[in-house]
């Protein structure tokens, strides 16, 4: 297994979650972990449509906000 592939600039190479191609996981890739804006857009679209179906008005990442009842 080659899990520590890197570019010449020392940035990690990961697999794009959308298309499976190589993706630079570093400051030079604003779409990381995706390889391109297109792949990132696909993922965001999926999230948006899924969120649209949810009947709750609570924020999706409640970890960041915490449960007010527990504070
Ligand atoms: Zn991709």
Automatic annotation (TrEMBL):
Coiled coil feature spans: none
The keyword Zinc belongs to this UniProt entry's keyword annotation: yes
Entry annotated with the keyword Ion transport: no
Function recorded in the entry: Inhibits all the catalytic activities of DNA gyrase by preventing its interaction with DNA. Acts by binding directly to the C-terminal domain of GyrB, which probably disrupts DNA binding by the gyrase.
Subunit structure: Interacts with GyrB.
Positions contributing to Zn(2+) binding: 16, 19, 35, 39
Keywords, sorted A to Z: Metal-binding, Zinc
Cofactor(s), names only, from the UniProt record: Zn(2+)
Superkingdom of the source species: Bacteria
Record Pfam families: YacG
Family note: Belongs to the DNA gyrase inhibitor YacG family.
Protein name (database record): DNA gyrase inhibitor YacG
Manner of cofactor binding, per the entry note: Binds 1 zinc ion.
SUPFAM superfamilies, per database record: Glucocorticoid receptor-like (DNA-binding domain) (SSF57716)
């Amino acid at each position: 297994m080659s899990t520590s592939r890197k570019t010449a600039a020392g940035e990690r190479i990961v697999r794009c979650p959308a298309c499976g191609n190589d993706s630079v996981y570093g400051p030079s890739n604003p779409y990381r972990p995706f390889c391109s804006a297109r792949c990132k857009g696909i993922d965001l679209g999926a999230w948006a449509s899924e969120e649209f179906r949810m009947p709750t008005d609570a924020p999706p990442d409640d970890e960041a906000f915490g449960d007010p009842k527990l504070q």
